[in-house]
Automatic annotation (TrEMBL):
<feature type="domain" description="Fe/B12 periplasmic-binding">
    <location>
        <begin position="26"/>
        <end position="283"/>
    </location>
</feature>
<dbReference type="InterPro" id="IPR050902">
    <property type="entry name" value="ABC_Transporter_SBP"/>
</dbReference>
<dbReference type="InterPro" id="IPR002491">
    <property type="entry name" value="ABC_transptr_periplasmic_BD"/>
</dbReference>
<dbReference type="Pfam" id="PF01497">
    <property type="entry name" value="Peripla_BP_2"/>
</dbReference>
<dbReference type="GO" id="GO:0071281">
    <property type="term" value="P:cellular response to iron ion"/>
</dbReference>
<protein>
    <recommendedName>
        <fullName>Fe/B12 periplasmic-binding domain-containing protein</fullName>
    </recommendedName>
</protein>
Length: 283
């Protein structure tokens, strides 16, 4: 192969937006978890737009897109990377093909499970030009710090914690879910460890009022947490207004935002872990 042709191929490879080591400088994030982790890694300056599902206080100056926003709207910001997830792609199935035809790289990464979070962070770090080792080290540092504080505050006592994931039909967090793992890290134990996920891999599990009342009467719940978010709008007033609330009169109750309890992110991990420790053991 002629040297000029080889040189041309190498130049085209270096300029391609799809090469594996391309460092994205203008990123559109269509999933709040990706946004949170980019911010946590100190690279929020690379974001040019985020999801309408992102928290209101997150980068309020940026454009926000819904899962069904058009490719033309996104292309107007001249991104070199669009980060998404499977759910968003299913809601807007034509988006990827249009963006890729326009030369924009699209990467879909599913929200990771607890044990897969380090691998997810490494992949994300490479995409945005961060050191994967440093990203993983930050995760280890946060987890170690939360575990150490929980151990110090708990003095060997582990409160039994029930999480209300949805008020309707009273679903809870499934064993192995992010919420269950975070509760464990913060020094608690899942009071619904026998709950079965609604389907394989799901983060929520049916539980029902009868089982809750039975567990409360048997003093098998020390803390009742309402996860407030898209699937559950309940707050403390709504909880107190329920006819059966008196069953929780001797149980500590609290509301925790979904992004701090169930969203796989460094920001949520740290904020949620600290909040849970305060709930479990006081200020």
């Amino acid at each position: 192969m002629a040297p000029r042709i080889i040189l041309y191929i190498l130049i085209m490879f270096m300029l391609s937006p799809f090469r594996a080591d391309a460092e994205a400088r203008r990123i559109v994030s269509l999933y709040p978890g990706h946004t949170d982790n980019i911010v946590a890694l100190g690279e929020e300056k690379r974001l040019v737009a985020i999801s309408k599902n992102d928290d209101g206080e997150t980068l309020p100056q940026l454009k926000r897109f819904s899962a069904r926003s058009s490719a033309e709207e996104i292309l107007a910001l001249k991104p070199d990377l669009v980060l998404t997830r499977g759910l968003a792609e299913r809601q807007n199935p034509q988006l990827r093909s249009v963006l890729e035809r326009a030369g924009v790289r699209v990467v879909s990464i599913e929200p990771p499970q607890w044990d897969d979070f380090a691998s997810y962070l490494r992949e994300l770090a490479e995409l945005i030009g961060c050191d994967p080792e440093a990203a993983e080290a930050k995760l280890k540092k946060i987890r170690k710090s939360i575990a150490a504080e929980a151990s110090k505050r708990s003095k060997g006592k582990k409160p039994a914690v029930f999480v209300e994931a949805t008020a309707k039909e009273l679903h809870t967090c499934s064993p192995g879910s992010w919420a269950a793992k975070l509760i464990e890290l913060a020094g608690g134990r899942n009071a619904a460890a026998d709950a079965k996920p609604i389907r394989s891999g799901s983060a929520i599990a049916p539980y029902g009022l009868e089982r809750i009342l039975k567990a409360a009467a048997a003093r098998e719940i020390d803390v009742y947490i309402v996860q407030r978010g898209a699937m559950n709008a309940a707050d403390m007033d709504a909880l107190a207004a329920r006819p059966w609330y008196t069953a929780l009169k001797d149980i500590k109750t609290a509301v925790v935002p979904e992004n701090e309890l169930s969203r796989p992110s460094l920001l949520g991990l740290e904020a949620g872990g600290r909040r849970l420790i305060k709930i479990f053991y006081g200020e």
